[in-house]
Amino acid sequence: MAIRSTVHKADLSIADMDRHHYADHSLTLARHPSETEERLMVRLVAFAMHADERLTPAGGISTEDEPDFWHLDDTGSIRLWLQVGLPDERLLRKASGRSDEVVLYAYGGRKAEAWRQDNAAALARLSKLTIWYLPEDECEALLPLVERTMRLGATIQDGHLLLAGDKASVELTPQLWQRGQAG
What we know:
The chain has about 180 residues and is an alpha/beta fold.
């Protein structure tokens, strides 16, 4: 018998002073059996940093050729491909060909650093790709916020994110590894 995804619901109140986006978003996030709570929370962080009424969950970890989130325009064209993790460079190349902008949130400490070094030349050729890195200690600090039903506030200012829930609050400062040129 296959193990089912765990459903997490997040009511996320966002005050993004950098982009002037102030809204409440209700997300239903299916956590694939192979997905860690850390990855789930990094997905939530990625959503918060790019929140928009058109940003929706895609196939992510369970669908190889889809991102975690995407922003589709009225014609079905992909405006933003939002990915989490350390994907194969070929997926990012394909995403760059299919979308106007690709944003990756990498995490994983030394493993992420090794991935970056191994793929540096290929990633540098992807002009639409922006890569943000979340330090390992900040990702671990997100874990007390994980619940099946989460009510979180996200405040974004000057590139910093304060994510606060009932049990904890975490300040994150994503590090820019590569800046793309949105199409």
